[in-house]
Amino acid sequence: MTHSIDKLRDAGQSVWLDYIRRGLITSGELERMVRDGWITGMTSNPTILLKAISGSTDYDEAIRQIAAQRVTSAYEAFLQLGGDDIRLAADALRPMWRPGILLPPVPPAPAKIIDVSRHQGVIHWAKVKAASVETAIIRATMGAFGIDSEYHRNWQGSWVGGIPHRGAYHLVIMGISAADQIANIMQTTGGDWGNEPLTLDCERTAADRLLLVFPKAQYTALVREMLDRLAVHGRVRIYTSANEWQAMTTLPAWAEGVVDWFAEYNDNITAPPALPPGVTTWKRRQFSHTGSVDGIIGDVDLNIDNVAPAPPPTGALTMAEKQEIEKHLDAVWIILWPKVKAKNPCALYDAPGGAVLKTITDGRNMDVFSKAGPWLLVTQAPNPIYWVRQQDVIQL
Questions:
Q1: Which terminus of the chain has a smaller tally of CB atoms within 10 A, N or C?
Q2: Quick one: which of 172, 242, 251 has its CA closest to 216?
Q3: pTM for this structure?
Q4: For the CA atoms of the chain, what is the radius of gyration?
Q5: Could you report the per-residue pLDDT of 99-153, keeping only the tens digit for each?
Q6: Domains located in the chain, CATH noted
Q7: Which residue, among 71, 72, 70, 53, has the nearest Cα to 61 in the 3D structure?
């Protein structure tokens, strides 16, 4: 009987294992899978390593050695643990390597992606789902106090209607602090952004267009601060257009990889959008603001995702890539160091970068529950939970 993997290989497909674990290599199982032609490659990243560590005892000794070395960087710990796995797996996969023909990927049919707000009125989400819409991005908030009047109805309705991918977006308004706008986002959404990144809508308001000179430096700093603060809670992206981004910002270098959804309206929906200086890639294009979808009365914004292969890496990580890696490395860090000891003195905060609630000098041991960059969420029963700076504690 022909095995399904043989059929895939005969069709010119290569099977990769989206998983790696030390025991899979040392037991000889990986070598057998390669020898039998089951797989031709593997995937390794911080998320996979985290699952392997938490789901086995394969790494206990290696972690003890790292702890003994007093490694303080989660990135360095990942390089040691993950690097050994990658080297061992590469040795096992060596017999499979051979020159051959690279088959270009076949892009899937464009998915229907819409973004909506109160302007679409009451939406019949079951009909929208039946119209093959796969992704809906729903406006939630504007500035510090604005809440889209249809947000809660749309958020609940899109979930009940079975829309597979849902996300929320916020209109960034100049002249309002990042803290106040983020407070509005978090209070309105409850931190639930669906399974899409939270989108920051960066475009001028009617009032902005009346200004003789738009404060580009101030707006750029505002957007960057919002990105940094929101990264603690989840993935964030920016929607804009090439013209708007040039008109509103100083064209910061960090835009690459995070400013990735662009509006450009023309009949050629498969053409890439115009990109502002400093941005070379895009992931989503809004190609129409006068689209039609069953279940929505009137016009609706239509979008398409970029299915072209990503360009070869330049060696430098984008801001979005760095945030994603740091998020997973923080989880690995907690596994390596679940307890810390307070230095003398040690300030306790209500939130990352927030207000100091009190300062302790007793050198107490504390359990670590979460990590967000240089900030740790800690407690020692029966004390409440606080945030502390990593530099103010000692890893145990």
A1: N
A2: 251
A3: 0.59
A4: 24
A5: 433 333 334 444 599 999 999 999 999 999 999 999 999 999 999 999 999 999 9
A6: 4-96 (no CATH), 112-305 (3.20.20.80), 337-395 (2.30.30.40)
A7: 53
